[in-house]
Design goal:
mainly beta; 4-stranded antiparallel beta sheet; 5% helix
């Protein structure tokens, strides 16, 4: 009985001690230095920020593109500043280092083992960086502008959102990185303008957005079946109802749609009867632990981050900097 009680107490203690932080990266306005980083506490009651960097005395930089957490470190991709900013988050936040990658136009970062893979528009390739000493070790040329990176089923995938001439691309490429020397092993044709990738149940879901010469917005969804290499595609044509982000909630894939998020059907259409949320000006979205995070933006600070549950009940609404675009979730 004593042993059982002790085990229960230890389990409860470990549950209470495990604290989650949610990091929010605000993109800021292009050609400005007002990108900002924020942190939401574990009970979603308080937000802190800007963290470490503060415009204009100590700016984070120009155009915060994306976030990645790996081994108690937060990696911040700064697109127009051409840097990767790194902080130790094992006990709050402590600035650690900056990786300078001039004239590269970095977009996303994925870390496998001791190597960081960074998609870079201006290089038409993916940089490889050793995270032990932050030295560039190689560049994989992908013949296009790589956007999102995803490590899934022991392979690295990247969406090629545009061709080298900046015309819209329709490719997702698969890269074998198992021997340390990255090799492109497959290329999939998807809906034009592939952006965010999501791996689920041996498939990769692709959210696409592209534009014509008159800046009309076209949108589509794709699903790559990795067991057969078949690609299912759904092109919605011209529409302004979609956002760029996709996520998985309760074994269903959701995408921003019509001021909320809707699950995808088996044919990749939108199940509008099961929409969650109703907010204007959704700029970004992510989910974690059955909570949904919306970045709400009118492109001018202050903007907002809204947290809701899967029933659409609002948990909190925080003011943040301009263009909240990326989220990262950390359990310490």
């Amino acid at each position: 009985m004593k042993l059982r009680l002790t085990l229960i107490i230890l389990l409860l203690f470990s549950f209470v001690a495990a604290q989650q932080s949610v990091f929010v990266l605000c993109e800021g306005n292009f050609n400005s230095l007002n990108a900002s980083l924020w942190s939401i506490n574990s009970d979603y009651s308080e937000i802190t920020g800007p963290i470490y960097w503060n415009f204009p005395t100590n700016p984070l930089g120009d155009t915060g593109q994306s976030l990645k957490i790996h081994n108690d470190k937060l990696y911040i991709v700064m697109n127009n500043s051409n840097t990767i900013e790194i902080g130790d988050i094992s006990n709050g936040f402590q600035y650690e280092a900056t990786i300078d990658i001039p004239s590269s136009g970095p977009r996303d970062i994925e870390i496998v083992g001791n190597t960081a893979y960074i998609s870079c528009w201006y290089l038409n390739g993916i940089l490889l960086v050793d995270i032990n000493d932050y030295k560039i070790t190689d560049t994989l040329i992908v013949n296009g502008l790589p956007e999102d990176l995803l490590y899934y089923n022991d392979k690295l995938y990247t969406s090629i959102t545009m061709n080298p001439d900046w015309s819209a691309s329709d490719k997702v490429i698969e890269i074998d990185i198992s021997n340390g020397d990255p090799v492109i092993t497959n290329t999939f044709t998807v809906i034009t303008g592939p952006g965010q990738l999501l791996g689920y149940q041996n498939s990769i879901y692709v959210a696409s957005t592209y534009y014509d010469d008159n800046w009309n917005t076209y949108v589509g969804n794709s699903k790559i079946d990795l067991s057969t290499d078949n690609v299912l595609k759904k092109d919605f044509g011209i529409t302004s109802l979609f956002g760029p982000d996709i996520t998985v909630i309760n074994r269903k894939i959701y995408r921003i749609y019509n001021n909320g998020i809707c699950p995808l059907t088996d044919s990749l259409t939108m199940d509008t009867e099961k929409q969650i949320g109703n907010y204007n000006l959704i700029y970004s979205m992510a989910s974690n632990n059955n909570l949904i995070y919306f970045g709400i933006s009118d492109y001018t600070a202050p903007d907002n981050v809204i947290i809701i549950d899967t029933a659409g009940v609002e948990i909190n609404n925080f003011q943040v900097g301009a263009l909240p675009g990326s989220f990262a979730f950390y359990n310490d």
